[in-house]
Design brief:
Layout: H1 11-19, H2 26-33, E1 39-43, H3 50-62, E2 72-75, H4 79-96, E3 102-105, H5 111-119, E4 124-127, H6 129-136, H7 141-144, E5 150-153, H8 156-160, H9 163-178, E6 183-188, H10 194-201, E7 209-212, E8 220-223, H11 241-250, E9 253-257, H12 261-273, E10 281-284, H13 290-301, E11 307-310, E12 323-329, H14 335-342, E13 354-358, H15 362-376, H16 390-402, H17 408-415, H18 426-438, E14 452-455, E15 458-461, H19 466-472, E16 482-487, E17 495-500, H20 501-505, E18 512-515, E19 518-526, E20 529-534, H21 554-563, H22 574-586, E21 595-602, E22 605-611, H23 616-632, E23 637-642, E24 647-651, H24 664-675, H25 679-692, E25 698-699, E26 703-704, H26 707-724, H27 729-740, H28 745-755, E27 759-763, E28 781-782, H29 786-802
Parallel strand pairs: 1-6, 1-7, 2-4, 2-5, 3-4, 5-6, 8-13, 9-11, 9-12, 10-11, 12-13, 16-20, 21-27
Antiparallel strand pairs: 14-15, 16-17, 18-19, 19-20, 21-22, 22-24, 23-24, 23-28, 25-26
Helix pairs in contact: 2-3, 6-9, 9-16, 14-15, 15-21, 16-18, 16-19, 16-25, 23-24, 23-28, 25-26, 25-27
């Protein structure tokens, strides 16, 4: 326990609190007391005054007006959150009369203001990881940050598991080199492993004080009761539309969260059609035009909307005090995400947040019940500890070169102060440095990758004009290739948002699709812009927004498997309880330390179901590997489909011996051969190549490469490196990314570890209750193999026989 005396507030700030009858929360006072520490991590509930706790030491230190230049840097994962904090911070500063200038700096800030901020920075600057990285790239960075004392990282949980967080911590390593003694503060409401997040936040090897505020009352959270049971498959929650609408009517303001943009669009469309009372409802997600998002945000601030259908774009702490209900449509897949979303309701300390959860299908009922149990037990999930990604490091080296010459030894030492890179080997750093300088062995003869030169023991840009191109490509977010959507024949073509380039390529004139909750008609494409007109209601062709497709966390999957061990399930609705009991009667339920594999005939095909509970990406990979193994064994697989909990494969032949299919040795061998040349690896390579600076996503003049241009160039590069430089650092990065990202083979290995050789093979005569919903899942993947040839032969034989001919 800290025994230091409480740090006093300046009289004018203390008077402001007293005038309102407020008293400082204990954790806010503790932040003041520990303000001189090198690192502090505050974990406090939503509405508990985290932001004020983070800024109180800054306000106290700036109250006398003696400080010149930038004092505190506030970093947020969202531009909207930075703008919200600016509004909330300006009010007390003006009311108290403090001589403090506050400004924000994001991608939306005018370039003239950005230039002025570098020369004459405010006392408090609110920004994002990308904008901070850009600031560190300028030659005058040392002058800009000359007075910097504190850095506040808000919603640090959202950054600690992402490449944006890795980029941020590398930028902070640079700031600490410019400003020794710089203090760091992290703020969050949802941290599953405080020690791990503290290690990421602190400058290695500095300690980090962890402050835990009173968590406040448990949230009021339950499943929404509906007249109709959830469907067997699907993810839209449309069956609960009327029940959701009634809840919206009964509350002041409701946030209705969805896991994907496409689901949000569809739900909003049907909610609006059912909205006979014309209740004001909005929609908000990352693919909408900035102007539309800002209108919705302002309408929420003004209290003009009763509900907003949204995605992860509103996960974080925008302070809309009138929100008194959160509805999560679809299983949250991650307990921490659910807790974060629940916290959007009731931004008041010691007042419970109210939330309802709507399972989208029958199996999600089980997942939702398990998630609710975890919330009530205060058990979060997540995986914070990870090794710093090398593509982000390569970009950081180029950013550092933009700021001026540097010593490799000094930069290596600096980088190792960032937690995720604390154990970075010098040889690995040197490989990244060589890549940034020359492109690596196979590319060093090409002039475009000769970017750095070494002179007198320091590295510098070969051509100073390259700074423009490097700065234009700063960032770690690699979205699916998108095209702007604008209204045709309106002044300037009013922007509506963006759609995936692949989706745009499928459109024909007259096609209709949903965007921003309205149906539009495709009129044509001009200069990489999709032009549309409004159209009367009709059935739309749905835009496929890639966004983020969450996989059920390992911890949540384990809870489901633990629930299956119960003798009965009184906590489940009757329809779901009967479903599980029937599964246990005709087959068995999956267990955590065993693998249940069912085989049965259905509709003229043989089927195999593997209940791995490894998450959607891993189950998808398992389907690819198993069908390849089956193809090699002559079992003629025809296709598969995967969910978070199982993979269903269908084909021509019955599988009688499943053990060889799931042998670790066999699966690893298949994985290695499969990884050498496939679309997943090329797609992963493209993303990492953009981050590392091998290819540009944007070019001078403000134009972005089209997806086809980037794909063509990265595909050629990938094939070239595989052929001539198989040990190139970019191929190593690609493999590591694929194994934990799109392929997620790590969870396949985790599954194999927990089951060992304990496989329960159930040969059955018909479809089982647990397998039945898999037949209704979208995204079925056909296998082009020997089975097709055999079907053609069989069909030919039947035709010849019908014609009176025999092939014998």
């Amino acid at each position: 326990m800290d025994t230091r005396a409480a740090a006093p507030l300046p009289p004018q700030i203390e008077g402001w609190f007293k005038a309102r009858g407020w008293s400082i929360h204990p954790h806010q006072q503790q932040m003041l007391t520990l303000a001189d520490q090198p690192c502090q991590l505050l974990i406090a509930p939503t509405g508990g005054g985290k932001t004020m706790a983070g800024f109180l030491p800054t306000l106290a230190e700036l109250a006398d007006g003696a400080h010149e230049g930038l004092h505190t840097l506030y970093i947020s994962p969202l531009k909207a959150l930075a703008a919200d904090i600016k509004r909330n911070l300006t009010v007390p500063i003006e009311e108290i009369g403090l001589p403090i200038r506050v400004e924000d700096r994001t991608g939306d800030t005018p370039s003239s203001r950005k230039r002025r901020q570098r020369a004459d920075p405010p006392h408090i600057l609110l920004t994002t990881p990308e904008s901070l990285a850009l600031l560190t790239s300028y030659e005058d960075a040392a002058r800009t940050f000359a007075g910097l004392q504190r850095v506040i990282v808000d919603e640090i949980h959202a950054l600690s598991e992402s490449k944006r967080g890795d980029q941020l911590m590398l930028a902070l390593s640079r700031l600490s080199a410019l400003r020794p003694g710089l203090r760091r503060v992290g703020l969050s409401a949802t941290v599953e492993d405080p020690d791990a997040v503290a290690r990421i936040l602190a400058k290695n090897p500095d300690p980090c004080a962890i402050l835990q505020a009173d968590p406040g009352p448990d949230p009021d959270i339950r499943m929404l009761t509906t007249e109709a049971p959830p469907p067997w498959s699907g993810g839209g929650g449309r069956y609960a539309m009327q029940a959701v609408l009634e809840q919206v009517k009964a509350h002041n303001t409701t946030l209705i969260f969805h896991n994907t943009r496409a689901q949000a669009e569809i739900f909003f469309h049907h909610l609006w059609l059912a909205n006979e009372d014309q209740i004001p409802i909005g929609i908000h997600h990352g693919a909408l035009a900035r102007e539309q998002r800002e209108r919705v945000e302002q309408a929420m601030v003004n209290g003009e909307l009763k509900a907003i259908v949204c995605t992860g774009s509103l996960d974080l702490g925008i302070d809309w005090g009138d929100v008194d209900l959160v509805i999560q449509v679809g299983a949250p897949k991650n307990v921490k995400r659910l807790v974060q979303r629940i916290g959007r309701a009731n931004h008041r300390y010691n007042a419970p947040s109210k939330a309802l959860i709507v399972p989208a299908n029958r199996f999600e009922v089980i997942e939702c019940v398990c998630a609710l149990q975890a919330v009530r037990e205060h058990t979060l999930d997540g995986d914070t500890d990870h090794t710093g990604p090398l593509d982000v490091l390569c970009q950081h080296i180029l950013i550092r070169a933009c700021a001026g010459p540097f010593s490799a030894d000094a930069l290596f030492t600096e980088v190792r102060t960032a937690g995720a890179y604390a154990d970075l080997p010098r040889a690995t750093f040197d490989r990244c440095l060589d890549f940034a300088a020359t492109g690596g062995y196979a590319l060093r003869s090409y002039d475009q990758w000769q970017r750095l030169i070494e002179q007198d023991g320091t590295y510098r840009l070969r051509d100073p004009r390259a700074t423009t191109r490097i700065r234009m490509n700063i960032g770690t977010i690699v979205d699916a290739d998108k095209m702007a959507v604008r209204l045709h024949k309106t002044r300037g073509g009013r922007p509506l948002g963006e759609v995936e380039e692949y989706f745009a390529s499928t459109l024909r004139k007259g096609d209709t699709f949903l965007i921003g909750g309205e149906i539009v008609r495709y009129e044509g494409m001009r200069e990489m812009v999709v032009e549309v007109t409004r159209t009367p209601y009709q059935k739309p062709k749905i835009a496929t927004f890639m966004g983020t497709k969450f996989a059920t966390s390992t911890q949540l999957s384990d809870r489901i498997l633990a629930m299956f061990r119960q003798d009965d399930w009184p906590e489940l609705p009757t329809h779901t309880r009967e479903w599980l009991n029937l599964q246990r009667k005709v087959s068995q339920l999956p267990e955590r330390d065993r693998l249940l594999v069912e085989t049965f005939p259905h509709d003229g095909r043989e089927h195999l179901v593997a209940y791995g509970f490894a998450g959607r990406n891993a189950q998808q990979t398992l389907g690819l590997l198993l069908t390849q193994r089956m193809e090699a064994q002559g079992l003629n697989p025809m296709g598969f489909v995967s969910t978070d909990y199982a993979t269903l494969i269908w084909g021509l032949d019955n599988v009688t011996d499943v053990a060889p299919l799931f042998s670790r040795e066999n699966l690893m061998e298949t994985m290695e051969s499969w990884l050498t040349d496939n679309a997943v690896m090329k797609r992963t390579f493209k993303g990492s190549a953009i981050i590392a600076g091998l290819v540009d996503r944007a070019m001078p003049g403000g134009k972005r490469k089209s997806g086809r241009q980037a794909t063509f160039s990265t595909d050629i590069l990938y094939d070239t490196l595989r052929k001539y430089d198989p040990h190139h650092v970019m191929l190593e990065i690609t493999r590591n990314e694929a194994m934990r990202g799109l392929v997620d083979f790590g969870r396949v290995e985790e599954m194999l570890d927990r089951i060992g050789d304990r496989i329960d093979h159930k040969p059955l005569s018909r479809v089982t209750p647990l397998a039945a919903p898999l037949f209704l899942e979208p995204g079925r993947i056909p296998i082009q193999g020997l089975a097709n040839e055999r079907l053609l032969e069989d069909e030919a034989a039947r035709l010849m026989e019908t014609a009176g001919l025999s092939l014998e």
